[in-house]
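Ticket #4471: structure export looks truncated?
Reporter: QA, pipeline team
Priority: medium

Steps to reproduce: submit the single chain below to the structure queue and open the exported record.
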Amino acid sequence: MPDDDTILLIGTKEQVEDAKKMIEETIERISNTEEREISVPIEHHAKFKERRGALVQRICRECGDIVISFSRADSNSDKVR
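Actual output as written to the record:
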């Protein structure tokens, strides 16, 4: 049985090598991920969400497919991640 931080790959040599490469690439990409929280006054949240979130979608696209999420509407929080 593998340790908690070990992934067991079973398949042909080629399948295992392909899977190993994809896992290593994913780990590298994840390791380079940063999460920040910023304050945006609640009265401005609607501007970001109007037209099915067109502004948020544009920002995400122009910044390299980042993820932007707002606090729940009923939370009264001004935090945006």
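Status: closed, not a bug. The export was complete when the record was re-opened. Leaving a note from the reviewer for reference: The chain has two domains: 7-34, 37-81.
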